[in-house]
């Protein structure tokens, strides 16, 4: 009921701005639709449908996502829990942005008959609702602080919900080094019966590496000092 009331209100107080970008200018500041989406997965999943207990909706701002063969490159999809089937109802193309009386509205289509109206309400409390108005019209009502223009800044690491390849490599490398060090200490202590500094794995190698590093630094310093002396002369 709340969603339908907002829909009627917006229809009579509408100001439309068309853009292909995910950032929109408003009198209160920049609104960034990317803060309402993740890459490759919907930020809003299993959203309950008002008046339709067997329907569940998903929505993602800005970035297309795919969950099944019938929900590909989507902005929004609906799942019928009785038949366990998904249907694409909106794509991330030809969005129509509206800002009126502090309420953001984004209108999507599926490229055919379906239309999805997404209402974004500025609120510190996070919530999401959905409704099917008729066979081809759907509504989302999302309350979030990020619906307040200028309130949220998009950061790629948060919108993706995962770690980068470099971060994963570093974690694996550090973990492998830690496991090697612990296993070596246990082996040296309980099998070789070593103690003290002898518990350091490959101690002679590390000592030699430190020795060579010191000589390398001394060599570089000497070269620099000699060069400075020639320049003064």
The name of the CATH superfamily of the largest domain reads Mannose-6-phosphate receptor binding domain
What's the pLDDT, averaged over the residues? 82
DSSP summary: helix tally = 4
Q: Work out the strand percent.
A: 25-35%
Helix content: 25-40%
Largest sheet: 6 strands, mixed
Number of strands: 12
Low-confidence runs of at least 5 consecutive residues: 1-20
Task: Classify the fold: give the CATH topology of the largest domain.
Answer: Cation-dependent Mannose-6-phosphate Receptor, Chain A
Structural class of the secondary structure composition? alpha+beta
Widest sheet: strand order?
A: 1-8-9-10-12-11
CA-CA gap between termini: 89 Å
State the name of the first-level CATH class of the largest domain: Mainly Beta
* Domain module tally: 2
| Global geometry | elongated
Please give the CATH architecture of the largest domain.
Distorted Sandwich
Topology as a string of helices (H) and strands (E): HEEEEEEEEEEEEHHH
Radius of gyration: 30 Å
Pfam families: Man-6-P_recep (PF02157)
GO cellular component, one term: trans-Golgi network
Keywords: Disulfide bond, Glycoprotein, Membrane, Signal, Transmembrane, Transmembrane helix, Transport
Protein name: MRH domain-containing protein
């Amino acid at each position: 009921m709340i969603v339908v009331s907002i829909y009627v209100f917006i229809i009579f107080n509408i100001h439309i701005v068309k853009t292909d970008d995910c950032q929109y200018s408003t009198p209160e500041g920049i609104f960034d639709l990317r803060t309402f989406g993740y890459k490759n997965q919907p930020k809003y999943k299993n959203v309950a449908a008002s008046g339709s207990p067997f329907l569940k909706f998903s929505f993602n701002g800005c970035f297309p996502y795919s969950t099944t063969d019938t929900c590909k490159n989507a902005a929004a999809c609906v799942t019928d829990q009785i038949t366990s089937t998904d249907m694409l109802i909106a794509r991330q193309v030809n969005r129509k942005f509206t800002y009126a009386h502090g309420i953001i509205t984004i209108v999507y289509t599926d490229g055919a008959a379906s239309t999805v109206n997404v209402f974004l309400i500025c609120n510190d409390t996070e919530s999401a609702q959905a409704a099917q108005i008729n066979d081809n019209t759907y509504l989302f009502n999302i309350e979030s602080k990020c619906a307040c223009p200028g309130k949220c800044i998009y950061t790629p690491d948060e919108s993706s919900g995962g770690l980068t390849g470099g971060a994963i490599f570093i974690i694996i490398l550090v973990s492998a080094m830690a496991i090697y060090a612990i296993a070596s200490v246990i082996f040296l202590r309980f099998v070789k019966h070593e103690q003290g500094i002898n518990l350091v794995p490959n101690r002679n190698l590390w000592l030699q590496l430190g020795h060579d590093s010191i000589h390398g630094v001394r060599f570089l310093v000497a070269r620099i000092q000699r060069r400075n002396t020639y320049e003064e002369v």
